[in-house]
Structure formats: C-alpha cells, structure tokens
C-alpha cells in the first residue's frame, strides 16, 4: 500500500441534500418508502457519513446509485472489482465487421455496373 496524499471524504449528507433538491424528492414520501420516521430521513442530510446499509436503503428508495457517486470522487488509479463494461467494445466490433461486409458489397456492385 502506497502512501498518498490525504483525501478528504465527501459529506454524504450534502450529497443527499443536493440530490433531493435537484430531483425534488419528497422527504415524507422517502421516509415512508424506507419505513423510517421523516425526522430520521431529515437527520441523514446533516450527517457527514452514513452506514452503508442506510445509504443502500436510500439508493433503493430513490433508485439512484450514491455509491457510484462516491466512487467517482476517488482517483481513477484506485483498483476495483467491478467488471469492465464491454458492451460498447462489442458493438464497435460488430459495426466494424458490418462495415467490411458493406464495403465488399459496394466493390462488387461497382464491378457489376462496369465502373
């Protein structure tokens, strides 16, 4: 483990507060969805950190991945066990193959037309 500069952890409550305001999240409705008291949900906004299970419950209730938001604030050089998304690479490969086929068909068409 290398020694790196001290990273300041984000204020999770501020992250939640900003998300609620931007997305017009009703805290009473959120409290009901989480089966918690409205005052408890309001208190989460003031906390610097939250237990993972509490943040998980909020993610599920509002259908937003706050863990990804937090992870995005870490340096790109940090490792992860998240599998790489290969859907774009697969789609590019598929389109390149299709492009080769179409280029071949175009050449054949040019030959048939006598050009």
TrEMBL record:
SUPFAM superfamilies reported in the protein's UniProt record: lambda repressor-like DNA-binding domains
InterPro entries: Lambda_DNA-bd_dom_sf
Source domain of life: Bacteria
Full protein name: XRE family transcriptional regulator
């Amino acid at each position: 483990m290398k020694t790196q500069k001290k990273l300041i952890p984000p204020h999770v409550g501020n992250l939640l507060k900003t998300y609620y305001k931007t997305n017009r999240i009703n805290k009473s409705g959120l409290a009901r969805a989480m089966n918690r008291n409205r005052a408890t949900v309001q208190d989460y906004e003031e906390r610097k950190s939250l237990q993972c299970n509490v943040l998980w419950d909020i993610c599920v209730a509002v259908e937003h991945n706050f863990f990804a938001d937090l992870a995005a604030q870490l340096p790109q050089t940090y490792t992860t066990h998240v599998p790489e998304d290969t859907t774009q690479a697969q789609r590019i490969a598929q389109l390149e193959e299709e492009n080769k086929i179409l280029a071949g068909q175009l050449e054949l068409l040019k030959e048939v037309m006598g050009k």
